[in-house]
Amino acid sequence: MTLTSPNFTCSPAIPATPDPAALTARETFLADLIREAGALARRAFADTSTPQVGMKGPQDFLTETDAAVEDLVRSRIQASFPDDSFLGEETGGVATGPVWVVDPIDGTANFARRIPHYCISIAYVADGEIRLGAIYDPSHDELYAARQGRGATRNGTPIRVAQTTRADAACLELGWSNRLPNATYLAVLTAMLEAGANVRRAATGALGLAYVADGRSDGYAELHMHPWDCLAGLLLVEEAGGRVCGFLEADGLNKGGAVLATAPGLAELMSRATNVTLREAPN
Ligand code: LIP
C-alpha cells in the first residue's frame, strides 16, 4: 500500500536556514495569526445554525470552517511572507524551501458534531527541520508554542513532558484512520493494553501531541498521519523534553508517515508497541 497525501507535490528541500531575526518575526506573526484563526473557528463553533458538513471520504469530514480558516491563514502568510511556501490540508500546496504547514481545524469530526475538542495546528519548516510550531485550542484559550532549541510553552508558561515510567500508571493516546488496516491499529492497542497502560482516542492528533508536551498524556501514536496533523506537535514534544520519531527524515512532508511521541520513561514501551523508531535523545 502506497500512502501518499493528495493534492500537493514536494521537491527536494532547498536548504534555507532563516536567520534568527527572520525566525523571530515569523514566531511573533504565528502567535497572532493562530489566535486570529482560532477566534474565527470559535465564532463558527458558537453558531448554532445548521453547520455545512461535507465528506472528503469515509470518516473524513469537511466543514465550511475548515475552508474559511485555511483561507484566512493562507492569505495572511502570503501577505507577510510572500517568498515562503504554503501547504494546507484543504487546499494543498508545494512544499519547497521554507514552508508553512497548516491544519485549519484538527479534530474536524469533533467540530462537526459540536464537541469542543479541536484545534488549529501550524508549523514552519525550513532546511529540513521543524523550526516553529503552534497549536491553539479555541475552546479553552490554550496556545501551545515552540521554537526549535528554545523550549515549549502553553500561554507563555514553559511546559515539560510527564515523568511517568510505569506502564500501569501511563495514559497513552492512539489515533487511527482508514488509511491503514484496522488490524494494524488493533495490534498496537492490544500491546499497549497488555503492557498495563490506559489508552484514549480523542480524534485530534495535534492536541493529542500537545498534551504529551504538556504532561497531560504520556504518549501519542498514530501509524499514519499527514504532515499538517503532526509537525507542530512533534516540535512541542521534543522541545518539552520528550522523545519523537523522525517524521521528516522519513519523507513525511511528502508522504505522511508514522508518528510516535512519548515521555522519556515510556520510550521503550511505546517504540516496542508501535514498532516505530524514535530519534536519539538529545545529549
Ligand atoms: C485528524 C487527525 C487525527 C486522526 C483523525 C483526523 P482532521 O485530522 O488529527 O490524528 O486520527 O482521523 O485525521 O481530519 O480532524 O484534521
TL;DR?
This protein has 283 residues and is of the alpha+beta class. It has helices at 20-46, 64-80, 108-112, 182-194, 205-213, 227-239, 252-255, 267-274, and strands spanning 8-9, 53-57, 60-63, 85-88, 92-94, 99-106, 119-126, 129-137, 142-147, 152-154, 157-158, 171-174, 198-200, 219-225, 243-244, 257-262.
Describe this structure in words.
With 283 residues, this protein is α+β, with helices and mostly antiparallel strands. The chain has two domains: 20-158, 2-Layer Sandwich (Fructose-1,6-Bisphosphatase, Chain A, domain 1); 167-274, D-Maltodextrin-Binding Protein, domain 2. The protein has eight helices and 16 strands. The protein has helices at residues 20-46, 64-80, 108-112, 182-194, 205-213, 227-239, 252-255, 267-274; strands spanning 8-9, 53-57, 60-63, 85-88, 92-94, 99-106, 119-126, 129-137, 142-147, 152-154, 157-158, 171-174, 198-200, 219-225, 243-244, 257-262. The strands form three sheets. It has a nine-stranded mixed beta sheet, sandwiched between helices. A five-stranded mixed beta sheet has the order 13-12-14-16-15, with helices on both faces. A two-stranded antiparallel sheet has the order 2-3. β8 and β9 form a beta hairpin. The protein is globular, with a radius of gyration of 18 Å. The termini are far apart.
